[in-house]
Amino acid sequence: MHHMETSRLSDAGANGRASDVPTRPGNLAFLLHAANARMTDHLDRAAAEIGLRDMRDWLVLAALADGEQANQLELSRIVCVDKSTLISVLDRLERQQLVTRTVAPTDRRVRIPRITAAGKRAHAKFAVARDAAEAHAFDGVPDSQRKLVLSLLARFAERDLTGA
């Protein structure tokens, strides 16, 4: 009989999503989900501390801060949220004057979101919390392993698994 080793995540998340979750060391999907839940719980709290609703607000600001111009549909793909969720996030960020939306010159039905100066400040402030969370997550992990994990995650994030 095959015995699957499990361990428990020790820190309880604010909303219980990452609390007391059994991990399965050989199950990539489970581990990615558990790691995401842990990081999201922490970063949602950090976002709230600076006036953002949650980490998705920062993801949108981060995507816009790189200067690449994208319409709302393209932005939804970049930040991996559905278009209706993105519209809600953009509405909220626009009310906070962290983003503006302009009409695309080639198609008046298309909106182009842009980050404001206040949005850039919020993005930079949150980046400090994100950096601290990442440093904590990799505490005690050799730099070579950290780089390998990040490289593998980037590869997974870029890969289309629909043909699998």
TrEMBL record:
Pfam families: MarR. Residues 1-21 are annotated as: Disordered. Gene3D superfamilies: Winged helix-like DNA-binding domain superfamily/Winged helix DNA-binding domain. SUPFAM superfamilies: Winged helix' DNA-binding domain. GO terms for molecular function: DNA-binding transcription factor activity. GO terms for biological process: response to stress. It comes from the Bacteria. Residues 25-158 form the HTH marR-type domain. PROSITE patterns: HTH_MARR_2. Transmembrane segments: none annotated. This is MarR family transcriptional regulator. It comes from Nocardia terpenica.
